[in-house]
Amino acid sequence: MKIKNLLLILTCQLIFTINASSQVFKYIVATDGSGDFTSIQSALNACPDGQTSMIFIKNGTYNEQVTLGTKAAASTKKISLIGESYGGVLITHSQSRASSGSPTYEDVCTVKFYATDLYAENISIQNAAGNTGMAEALYTAGDRQIFRNCKVLGYQDTYRSKKGTRGYFKNCWIEGAVDFIYAGGTLFLDDCTINCVNGGGHIVAPEDSYTTKASTVSGKTLNLGFVFRRCNITANSDVATASYDLGRPWNINSGAYYLNCTLGKHIKPAGWATMSGNETTASFAEYNSMNPDGTPASVSGRISWSFQLQQYDADSLLNPQKVYSTTYTTTFDPITKSTPTAKPENLSINGSTISWSAVSGAIGYVVYKDGKYLGSVTGVSSVDNSGITGSYSVRALNSIGVLSEVATLATALSDVEMGNVGITINHQAITLSQRVEKMQLVTTTGNIIAQKINESILTLNNLSQGIYLLRMYDKGMTYTKKIILGTE
C-alpha cells in the first residue's frame, strides 16, 4: 500500500482519566455540576464526624452561607478547603445586622467555622452588604485555624474571631472600613495585605486577650491579641490621607502589634484611637513601621499611651511560638503546617502517561490543564486517552492540603514553534528535517506502534489508512500532531 498524502492538524483536546481510588480529595465542589456537589455547605455536611476530609472547590461564585459546627456544638470534623486558584473561588452573602429582625453577627455572617484544626487556601469570603452597618464575612470560633492565600472582604466588622482561640493567616487579603478585624482570640498575620476602603477609619478593635507576664525591654506589658508581621497596610485610591488609625481598644485588656509593617499615607499621625476609656489598660505598639518607599515611618506624633517596641520584643516575645504557647496548653505550629512541599520535578510524557518525580512529604498531587483543574492522584502519574496538547501543571499537597508551587510542562505545538522542523513522507516513512530526542506514532487509543530515539526518520511499515498521532519530544517539550494517512 502506498501512502498518498499526510495531513497535519492540531491534536484533539486531551481526555484525562483518573482512577477514582487514587482521588486525594474527599469531595469536589463545582457550580457547573462537574463535581460531587454544587454547594460548599453540602460537601461539609457529607464529611464524616471525627475524621479528616479535604474538599477541593473549583473556581466559581458560591452564593451561600457556610457553617461548620454550631455555637452550641462545635464540629469534630477536621476540614481542609482548597480552592482551585487564588481569587477564583468566592463565597458571598449580603446581609447586615441593620436588617429587619435585628439579627446577630452569627445570623448575618457569610462563613462561620466552629471547629478546630481547619485549613483554608485560595478561598475568598465576602459579605457584600456594603456600608449598611455591621456585616461579618468570616467568624472563626475554633482553635488552631489556618488561612493561606485567602481573601476576607467586607465593610464593617468584616472578620470576627472568638476569644480563647488561635488563628494564623499567611499571604491573605483582609478588607474593610470600620473595625474590620475585631473581637477576641490570639491572631498572627504574616505577610498579609490589610486594605482600607473609603468611608471608614478604624482597622482593628481587639477585645480582652490573654496577658503574658514577660516584660518588654521598656517594661511594658503585652496583651497577646492581634499581631501583624511584615504586613502591607494599604488603601483604595479614594481613601483620604490621614483618615485611618491602626486600631482602637474594644475592651480593657486588648492588645495589637504591628511588626515590620508598611503603612500607607492614609494612617493618621496619632496611629491609634481611644475607645470608652479602655486605652488606659490596653497594649498597642509598633516595631519598625515603614513607609511604602521603604523609609522609616514617622512615629513622633503617636498617641501617648501607645509605645514603640524594641527588636528583642519583636523577635523574642512576639514570635508565633511564644505567642501561641502563652496560657495555651496545646501545641500550635502553623508555620510548619502551612509550609508547602517542594514542587514536583522531572515532568515528562510517555505515551499516554504524564509522570513526575515523587515529592518528599506529599500525600498527593493536583493536575491542571491550561490552569484549570483536571484531577488529583496519590501516585506520581496520570493517564489520558488521547493526544496531549496544551499546558499541563502539577502541584504537590502536604498533609493538610497546602499546595506547592506549580511545575509546568508545555505540550502544545504552534506553527511558529514548528517553523524550523519540516515533516515529509517518503517510502513509507515520516521524515523530520532535524533529529529529535524521541518520536512516536500512536493510535488514537494510546497504543505506541512505532518509536525512534534520537532520530529524524520513523518507518511506517505499510500502515493501514486511518488517524494516528505523531509525538515529538525534544528539549523538555512535547509536540503532538494528528495525522491522517490516505491511500491512492
Question: Can you walk through the features of this model?
Answer:
- The chain has 488 residues and is mainly beta.
- It has 3 domains: 3-11 and 414-487, Sandwich (Immunoglobulin-like), CATH 2.60.40; 22-337, Pectate Lyase C-like (3 Solenoid); 348-410, Immunoglobulins (Immunoglobulin-like).
- It is built from 5 helices and 42 strands.
- Strands 3-4-7-10-13-16-19-24-27-29-30 form an 11-stranded parallel β-sheet. Strands 5-8-11-14-17-20-25-28 form an 8-stranded parallel β-sheet, with no helix packed on it.
- Residues 1-21 and 412-419 have low confidence and may be disordered.
Portion in strands: 35-45%
Q: How does the overall form come out from the CA principal axes?
A: elongated
CATH topology of the largest domain: Pectate Lyase C-like
Quaternary structure annotation: single chain
CATH architecture of the largest domain: 3 Solenoid
CATH homologous superfamily title of the largest domain:
Single-stranded right-handed beta-helix, Pectin lyase-like
> How confident overall, as mean pLDDT?
87
CATH classification class of the largest domain = Mainly Beta
Please provide the count of β strands. Answer: 42
Please state the CA-atom Rg, rounded to the nearest Å: 28 Å
Q: What is the tally of helical segments?
A: 5
Q: Write out the strand line-up for the largest beta sheet, numbering strands in chain order.
A: 3-4-7-10-13-16-19-24-27-29-30
Largest sheet: 11 strands, parallel
Question: What is the count of distinct domains?
Answer: 3
| Percent in helix | under 10%
For the record, give the distance between the C-alpha atoms at the N and C termini, rounded to a whole number. 8 Å
Briefly note the structural class of the backbone.
mainly beta
